[in-house]
Amino acid sequence: MSGVWVVLEERGGRIGRISWEAVAAGQQLASQLNMKANVLLIGSQTEAFAAEAATKGLAKVVRIEHPLLALYTADGFSLALEQFCRSENPDYVVFPHTYQVRDYAPALAARLNRVLISDVTAISEGPAFTRQLMQGRLSGSYRPSGTGPCFLSVQSGAFRAETAEEGNAEVAKFTPEIAPEQIRTKPSEPFRGSAQTVDLGSAQFIVAVGRGIKEADNLSIVQDLATALGAELAASRPICDNGWLPLERQVGSSGQTVAPKVYLAVGISGAIQHLVGIKGSQCIVAINKDPEAPIFEVADYGIVGDLFEVVPALTDALKSAKQ
Amino acid sequence: MKIVVAIKQVPERDAQVRIDASGKWIEESDLQFAMNESDAYALEEALQLKEKHGGEVVVISAGPERTGSTIREALAKGADRGIHVDCGDLGQRDALGVARLLAAALKPESPDLVLTGLQSDDLGYGQTGVIIAELLDLPHASLVLHVEKTDAGLTVKRELEEGWFQNIELATPAVLAIQSGGNKLRYATLMGIKKAKTKEVRRVTAAELGVDGAPAAVLERITLPQKQKSTQILPGTAKESAAALVEKLKFEVRVI
What we know:
The complex is a heterodimer.
Chain A: E1 4-7, E2 10-11, E3 14-15, H1 17-33, E4 37-43, H2 47-53, E5 60-65, H3 74-88, E6 92-96, H4 99-111, E7 116-124, E8 128-133, E9 138-144, E10 150-154, E11 170-174, E12 185-187, E13 191-192, E14 205-209, H5 219-229, E15 232-235, H6 237-241, E16 262-266, H7 272-275, E17 283-288, E18 301-304, H8 307-322
Parallel strand pairs in A: 1-4, 1-6, 4-5, 5-11, 6-10, 7-10, 14-15, 14-16, 16-17, 17-18
Antiparallel strand pairs in A: 2-3, 7-8, 8-9
Helix pairs in contact in A: 3-4, 5-8
Chain B: E1 2-6, E2 9-11, E3 33-35, H1 37-53, E4 56-63, H2 67-77, E5 81-86, H3 95-106, E6 113-117, H4 128-136, E7 140-149, E8 154-159, E9 164-170, E10 174-178, H5 190-196, E11 201-205, H6 206-209, E12 217-223, E13 232-233, H7 238-251
Parallel strand pairs in B: 1-4, 1-6, 4-5, 5-11, 6-10, 7-10
Antiparallel strand pairs in B: 2-3, 7-8, 8-9
Helix pairs in contact in B: 2-5, 3-4
């Protein structure tokens, strides 16, 4: 058996949107290559998820089940998928680009003498896989080489989950051999960080600040702008890493996902990890001194200039407009 | 505890990167280079572990001649010695190829702990640490924010998505890929910079390590990214462009 196999990921008792996006990517790839798209579920109890997946226009749904796969471990998941790959020889294995996948898929690929093409945003003829380089300033086209399965992970939001087709797939089971001593890490239950008191997800207006602000002391000008616009203040990761704003104000793949009417990005270059968190915004405004900053690829309006001049001017203009 | 930290030299943040004539790499001649950000956090974690528990911190970096300056920077911050894997074709190697170089070079050190940054700011594969663990047959954890030494080995705090975290126990030797933000980064002191000049940096070439260079994924072409939206740039002075934006928000977006 061969073809395209998509690995679905369970999170919080359901298969998340990014997994269905990976299915859409897998289906696109399969149709380009005249192959069949199939999915894999990994866990100790995957029956309900398999039933859901079986309706998505796939040839086969395989449940890789073992009691030792109940809680995610890199060793357990790599071992299970390695055995599946050796037995079924897939041509392509498609993952959603999640933190969990980043933790084990590179090891799995290396075990089979292959490499993961990570964070793919588009699939073109060949097939060739597009991914970002240099924090989104450039784009690279990759082609798999040599023999063996091609492993790829797809970026959140790059493929449309709605395009996943309907159908009635065959469901089968695959039981890997895993011994307890093969799992070398002992995970504990996930826990929440400090109580979240800022809900950026429901904010209508957001002013977000990035590295361009240079120093913590300069934050006040951005706070003034947020106040004038009636907006929540948010930040990109480096600002929170530095401790200049609390983690709960972080937007992006490691922070909150937002969907405001207006998202005003101040001094944010627009690395992909940030952009995935703001895709749902109705209007994106960027203020940045660098005209080539990737934020301008997604912005509706842009001001190229020194934020230390533009931000106070904008605060004043908003104040007079609202009077 | 003997800790090896793998670091990478990358183009400086906000550098204007250009595609070179081959279309397969970037024009390096006019670029400034710096230590990759999450690698700086990995180095910081290693230095703090050494300060608490004693031992040695060895930095390893693969790259051309210029990589030496980033190794010196790590030595100035407090690392004890360096290993430079001299290799001019880093960009043509895939994540597995680079991890093979690093794993081969650091294996004879028999470290208790190998730290890497989570992801490079240039190619962004985000796989080096996890693959090194696989090649050395060691347990690993990625997205690590905090490392605690215990009697049995280590307890590490991992970042999960959407504000969740998880603690993981693992035995040493182990490999950890460090996420940024777990610690506050230190600066090199004048004394540190002075001392770094006398610290040992061992050079080894890719050929000497006997690592096969054939990639499993080939970077065929670099292009400018496709614009997802047509951005209206609002020109003029700060005051003019601010006024223009307010007009747009009022009459086009109709939100104020």
